[in-house]
Structure to design on (285 residues):
């Protein structure tokens, strides 16, 4: 790895959140900066919700090229940005801000990109234009469903513990989304080619996802956006049945690529070294 050079002309970016100490984005971006020998720095920026717009407006004044946005600021970023691209508008949240040459702030969302790129990397050759079942109806589910519809999924079946939220998500996104009751989640697996868990069930410190996989076709791919632990109970159960499984770490890694290219002018890849670096920072469960 090349030594990282930082000068008074360094390009700056960061991640805005509250709290922000949990974010692994500094590991990712500073690894790339060092690897490519770029004069730049990526910083954690702890910003309380009431200060977010003021802090965002300060980015151009402080010489920042942009920033990532994490909880709880993703919706505020969408509302406060000068420009919002079509993907962020559809998802309803922004995770990436880019300062333009004239000092305006453009908002986008790279979560859908990261989700699909993770599947393509970790399950090469998998057909993603298949009927899918998505569990959960939060912000991550919105990005996942946008990604699946854009990848050609003929139908997305959506199940959430609160049906009303799933109905609202389906209505806002449009397209071939069918909502089912949470109690019917197992039966909805029949005929699916892809199962995606976007809930926190199965995350370290949370209850496991209770799901009977008997109706899921054996050729179906199973993925979980959770990456603490990497092998969630859902993935372990699916793998035991012979399914190909994909953990959620790659989504985090790949969603970082477009922002890095915009801020630092270099297209980057997700390498085994980077994945290993971030894996070492994940608590063993």
């Amino acid at each position: 790895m090349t030594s990282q050079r930082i000068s008074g002309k360094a390009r700056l970016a960061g991640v805005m959140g509250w709290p922000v100490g949990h974010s692994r984005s500094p590991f990712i971006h500073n690894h790339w900066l060092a690897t490519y020998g770029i004069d730049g720095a990526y910083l954690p920026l702890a910003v309380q919700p009431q200060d977010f717009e003021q802090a965002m407006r300060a980015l151009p004044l402080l010489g920042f090229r942009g920033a990532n946005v994490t909880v709880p600021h993703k919706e505020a970023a969408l509302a406060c940005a000068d420009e919002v691209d079509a993907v962020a508008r559809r998802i309803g949240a922004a995770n990436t801000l880019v300062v333009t040459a004239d000092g305006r702030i453009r908002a986008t969302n790279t979560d859908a990109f990261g989700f699909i790129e993770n599947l393509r990397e970790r399950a090469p050759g998998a057909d993603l234009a298949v009927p899918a079942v998505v569990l959960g109806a939060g912000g991550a589910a919105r990005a996942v469903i946008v990604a699946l519809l854009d990848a050609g999924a003929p139908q997305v079946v959506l199940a959430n513990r609160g049906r009303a939220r799933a109905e609202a998500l389906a209505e806002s996104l449009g397209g071939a989304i069918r909502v089912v009751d949470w109690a019917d989640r197992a039966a909805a697996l029949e005929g699916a080619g892809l199962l995606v868990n976007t809930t926190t069930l199965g995350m370290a410190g949370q209850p496991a996802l209770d799901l009977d996989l008997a109706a899921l076709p054996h050729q179906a791919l199973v993925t979980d956006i959770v990456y603490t632990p990497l092998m969630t109970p859902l993935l372990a159960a699916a793998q035991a049945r012979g399914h190909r499984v994909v953990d959620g770490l790659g989504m985090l890694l790949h969603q970082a690529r477009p922002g890095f290219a915009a801020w630092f002018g270099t297209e980057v890849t997700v390498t085994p070294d980077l994945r290993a670096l971030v894996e070492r920072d994940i608590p063993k469960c």
Q: What stands out?
A: The first strand starts at residue 11 and ends at 17. Residues 249-264 form the longest helix (16 residues). The mean pLDDT is 95. The chain has two domains: 11-109+251-280, 112-247.
